[in-house]
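Our collaborator T.R. sent over the components below with a one-line note: 'Predict the complex.' Nothing else. No constraints on interfaces, no templates requested, no preferences about which chain binds where. So this is a plain run: every listed entity goes in together, and whatever single assembly comes back becomes the starting point for the next discussion.
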Amino acid sequence: MSGPARTAVIAGAGQLPLAVAAALEAPVFVTFAGSGAAPCPPHAQPLAARFERLGALFEALHAAGVSRVVPAGAMQRPVLDPARLDAVTADFLPQFQAAMAAGDDALLRAVVALFEGAGFTVAGPAEIAPDLLAAPADAIGPAPDAAQMADIARAEAVLAALSPLDVGQAAVAEAGLVLGIETLQGTDALLDFVAATPAGLRRGRGVLVKRAKAGQDLRVDMPTIGPRSLEGAARAGLAGVAVRAGEVLLLDRAQLAHVAARHDLFLAVL
Amino acid sequence: MSGPARTAVIAGAGQLPLAVAAALEAPVFVTFAGSGAAPCPPHAQPLAARFERLGALFEALHAAGVSRVVPAGAMQRPVLDPARLDAVTADFLPQFQAAMAAGDDALLRAVVALFEGAGFTVAGPAEIAPDLLAAPADAIGPAPDAAQMADIARAEAVLAALSPLDVGQAAVAEAGLVLGIETLQGTDALLDFVAATPAGLRRGRGVLVKRAKAGQDLRVDMPTIGPRSLEGAARAGLAGVAVRAGEVLLLDRAQLAHVAARHDLFLAVL
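Returned assembly:
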């Protein structure tokens, strides 16, 4: 049923868990109750889990021969039902509560440490599926012009300033003005916010910049750009999206190119 | 018709122009076409203006005996009709275009310099109506508790990091997490964004912090909190609003207290 180094995908929302699972031979596909994860792909073994019962999850993973886990895709911060806690989750609770109050990545780091403490190796999606990493050859459309490069630099300056605070994977700049900064709600919500900007404040077609935060644990919260991000950028009236090579995962390149062409968007990989 | 130091209020949107005019004896009340400014109060002399015809405005102000101007209230960046430019606006155009691309305050600073160059003194609302400045005695409701003080500190850290970039007068933090950062769209748009946060990401009732940017020219872009900001904070599910004493203008204190009481909000003046 399993080899010596079987891997489990801890599936969050979106396409990333499927892209990671596709790069593995016979993975276990863990979905948490209420997390909105995608359905288990045919070649993987499904495993349903609850945050309240991490002890049970660890046992099930060991029993399935899993030695390595890959968290993939965003997960909502869970609301735990105290009546259902097993011993492992109960012991973890104080750390969990402290991490919840300490920034976007603190909780993820704590969860990684918990899996490591239970004897698992924790790998990032980019280790399992390095082809997902944005590379210069993945650029789509014309290179950004000088004004767009200036907007990219402005958005990057915002992200660099916020990075030590564990805030901000993405920002939008347009004609030198900052139209949005990603917070807990994520990139799609940022793009919806920009889309709602009154027309009188718009000065052309801006740029979305997405990048990793300094010191971000790329095993658990790798920034991604997928077709949905490009659709959102189009709705927000942007000219394109810029990422740093090797810092961001690209999902479904064929569909990315299709969406970019349809909406006259660029994807710059700098 | 006017004394030797007559003052003109350059009226932007909202209540601030009216609050400033109320502190002046016989002001001129300048409204720009399409700026959405409030109607001229009865004790003031109305003066309609166009951005394309700043030369005409300067002449009219001089003719009315005005030696001092007070910009009050946010103004949309204008779209200029090139066919209507007078000589003063035409000469200003290159500076104007450069300033438009250089951040929220750059345009305002350029406009201040233009008025100064035309022989006017430029004063801030707080000089004309110092009673509008938030003071510790203006606090409403219970003092923030330790968790709320931590959220205030987190939002202030975000604003301090962005301040050198001429971005961000306000931010919202809740249980240690950043739920929103003000960009060009302003505080109301920020609060609407926070209000739209999915319930699963909320962890209680956060705090809005508003403050001046470092180096911000407080004559032209003084941060304000009015009843509408508190209504927005209530809709966003927040526990309260925090400002620094002397850095923010409070509009309509009686209504502020009323709105705060109705929605169980605090206003902290730190």
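Summary for T.R.: The two ends of chain A are 43 Å apart (CA to CA).
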